[in-house]
Amino acid sequence: MKRAALLSLAQVAAFGPWIGIVQAQTEITHIPPVFRPLALYESQYRLRAGQRVALAAPEETLDFIRDARIRTVTIAGPQGKGIVVGPNTERNGIELAASLLAEPGEYVVTLSARSGTGEERATTLAVILDPVQTVPVNSPNPPVVALDGWQFTCPGSLSGTFGSMADLLHDNGSYQVPVVYFFDNCVECPAPDCTIEELGNVLGQVLGLIKYDNGVLVSQVDLIAHSMGGLIVRSYLSGKQDTSGVFAPLSNPRVRKTIFIATPHFGSYQADSSLASLDVFAANQLNEMNPGSPFLCVGSA
């Protein structure tokens, strides 16, 4: 039996953005699908790159998507990727989330979900994606990019990881942060089971998109990283390109300060736990977080 067959239905459902791989590796029985429309209150949504929006739907539809064995997102548009769907555990809803790197434009998104009994529901959404938020040109302080750690459900959320931090930074007396961007690693992952090195390179691309509202590239940003997010920062700052040990550090990474919160700089015993071994969709990241891994020993600044 394939290793993925060990996953529970709840664990499989947590990885909606990578559903093609889920379906390929966990199809154990052959249940003829029963097709029905996926009922939503709204068929058009608008959001900004790097942000998320809740699906407006009956509770029964939300429950069906949340409990689905397989969730599939098929995207037509200028890029064909960069939008994912998954449960928001804080609000008990379902959200569309857009990558910070997603190209602005109009997308046609087909969302389908299949239950363990073989019932499949699908609908088509029109999604308008606006560019990444700009920074006011007169802001005296740099923006902040907040990076979350390894997630068991995708997408994650800024408040789920950092609480009310963004509100406090926006309204902090004499020192105010103009914009707080959320780097959700499971949304930004360029492929299923991407490495921390790949996420570090994606972080560099994201920083290259942050501009003032006059179109000029922001000169500096501050980073706040939780757990594995700190390792993504370390990989970016060291210029590590891939797992072969090739480094190309930037002369100006444009990072002023970094705050690490509970980052496993020397590894995490949980990355080698029996529960983590079931997560075949983040095996590379978990292996790199193992104490004594090549990534931790020679793989970052």
Brief characterization of the structure:
25% of the residues lie in helices and 25% in strands. It is built from 11 helices and 12 strands. The strands form 3 sheets. Strands 1, 2, 4, 7 and 8 form a 5-stranded mixed beta sheet that branches. The chain has a 4-stranded parallel beta sheet with strand order 10-9-11-12.
Which residues form runs of ≥5 with pLDDT under 50?
1-29
Q: Can you count the beta strands?
A: 12
- Class by helix and strand content? alpha/beta
What is the succession of H and E elements? Answer: HHEEEHEEEEEEHHEHHEHEHHH
| Basic shape | globular
Q: Beta-sheet strand percentage?
A: 15-25%
Q: Considering the protein shown, what is the CATH homologous superfamily of the largest domain?
A: Alpha/Beta hydrolase fold, catalytic domain
**What oligomeric arrangement do these chains adopt?**
single chain
| Total of domains | 2
CATH hierarchy class name of the largest domain: Alpha Beta
| Percent helix range | 25-40%
Largest pleated sheet: 5 strands, mixed
Mean pLDDT: 83
Task: Determine the number of helices (DSSP H or I, runs of at least 4 residues).
Answer: 11
Gap between N and C termini, in Å? 40 Å
CATH architecture title of the largest domain: 3-Layer(aba) Sandwich
Give the CATH topology of the largest domain: Rossmann fold
Report Rg.
20 Å
